[in-house]
């Protein structure tokens, strides 16, 4: 059973990286909305497209179930809570596997 510990730790790292990708995506969408960065720039377009492909499929089901709050999108907050919950379960599983 100790073989599961490294796998669970890799999952935790992957979730943490995804967490940061969501934060970068949020900041980038704000910067685009306020015309701080230009989407005609190839690098900005490439980064934005990659982040959208990573994050939008996860946010879409959350947005479908979440009530509308006008222009306010709360789905990233729900996603953060889900990631945090999964990370806590993984930490508990790692602790239990290391203990026993």
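Q: What amino acid sequence fits the structure above?
A:
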């Amino acid at each position: 059973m100790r073989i599961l510990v490294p796998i669970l730790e890799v999952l935790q790292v992957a979730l943490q990286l995804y967490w940061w990708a969501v934060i970068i995506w949020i900041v980038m969408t704000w910067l685009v909305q306020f015309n701080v960065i230009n989407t005609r720039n190839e690098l900005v377009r490439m980064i934005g497209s990659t982040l959208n492909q990573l994050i939008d499929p996860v946010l879409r089901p959350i947005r479908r179930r979440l009530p509308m709050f006008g222009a306010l999108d709360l789905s990233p907050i729900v996603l953060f809570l889900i990631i945090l919950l999964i990370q806590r379960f993984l930490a508990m599983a790692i602790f239990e596997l290391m203990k026993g």
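Q: And what stands out in the fold?
A: The CA atoms of residues 88 and 96 lie 12 Å apart.
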